[in-house]
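Anyone up for a design puzzle?
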């Protein structure tokens, strides 16, 4: 049986759960904390006309690249450098380490959850909205721009308040921190020229009955209803009250589930965490998907078997 490689940050509770589940199932697995690379772990490639091989040394173990069957990838920038390495030398070393790690995408025949290149494409929120619309999912009326005048025209033409979202969610934010969705108030409109420096996402606010967090692992779909409208602080963005809102495992309509799976296939993803609104009229409205979204708190609240599904998805390629 081949080995499951987990490439994660130092703080990754989901990886802890998956690792425990893999070990309980007797799977060979290795966790590689990229914060230890390159100073405290080793990556080696050997290339010649005769072929390619290599190895990783991490967590006190050495494994051949050809012995890896699957990879759980929760990328974190390699920062395992001596503190005295600073400035241009530090930036050069970081680039070199990143390039060495990136070669894993092409040198090995692994199953990635998710493949880094596919995940990078799928993280584009405009691309997500385009794909969702193409597949027949409802989406909010949206503008993505760095033109303040375009935003002002959008606000005037909207029947509902306008909300603002960032185009990205930095991976290196401290645990528990997040960029929340915000309402575009008069005060914020007055400083709108700041978007000249960085584009943003502006959407017409969608009325909510409740929300859904839909976690997909391969062909398996785990859906949870979020009673976000029961708490004032969760009404706009339920993540503000992550541990206070009520969650309930629910079944999706077959048509919505089929479109979600088609979305995953279009982007080449195996894992993804979707956010939807269900309106008072019963319309399902796609908001976004996080290809590396967290799920542990949701599993604890609902009993959904997401960790087990991920372990199974990682073990299966290792059995061939």
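Challenge accepted. My sequence:
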């Amino acid at each position: 049986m081949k080995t499951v490689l987990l490439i994660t940050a130092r703080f990754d509770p989901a990886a802890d759960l998956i690792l425990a589940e893999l070990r309980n199932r007797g799977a060979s697995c290795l966790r590689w904390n990229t914060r230890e690379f390159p100073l405290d772990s080793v990556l080696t490639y050997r290339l010649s006309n005769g072929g390619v091989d290599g190895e990783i040394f991490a967590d006190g173990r050495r494994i051949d690249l050809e012995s890896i069957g699957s990879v759980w990838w929760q990328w974190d920038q390699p920062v395992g450098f001596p503190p005295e390495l600073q400035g241009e030398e530090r930036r050069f070393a970081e680039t070199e380490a990143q390039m060495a790690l990136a070669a894993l995408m092409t040198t090995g025949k692994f199953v990635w959850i998710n493949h880094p290149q596919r995940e990078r494409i799928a993280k584009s929120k405009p691309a997500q909205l385009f794909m969702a619309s193409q597949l027949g999912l409802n989406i909010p009326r949206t503008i993505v721009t760095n033109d303040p005048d375009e935003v002002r025209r959008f606000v005037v033409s909207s029947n509902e308040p306008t909300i603002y979202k960032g185009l990205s969610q930095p991976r290196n934010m401290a645990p528990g921190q997040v960029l929340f969705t915000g309402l575009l108030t008069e005060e914020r409109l007055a400083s709108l020229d700041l978007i000249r420096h960085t584009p943003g996402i502006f959407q017409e606010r969608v009325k909510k009955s409740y929300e859904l967090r839909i976690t997909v692992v391969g062909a398996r779909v785990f859906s949870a209803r979020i009673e976000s409208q029961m708490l004032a602080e969760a009404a706009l963005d339920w993540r503000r009250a992550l541990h206070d809102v009520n969650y309930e495992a629910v079944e999706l309509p077959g048509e919505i589930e089929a479109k979600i799976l088609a979305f995953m296939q279009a982007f080449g993803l195996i894992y993804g965490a979707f956010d939807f609104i269900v309106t008072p009229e019963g319309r399902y409205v796609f908001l976004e998907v996080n290809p590396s979204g967290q799920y542990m708190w949701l599993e604890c609240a609902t009993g959904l078997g997401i960790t087990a599904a991920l372990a199974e998805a990682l073990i299966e390629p290792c059995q061939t």
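A detail worth pointing out: Residues 39 and 59 are 13 Å apart (CA to CA).
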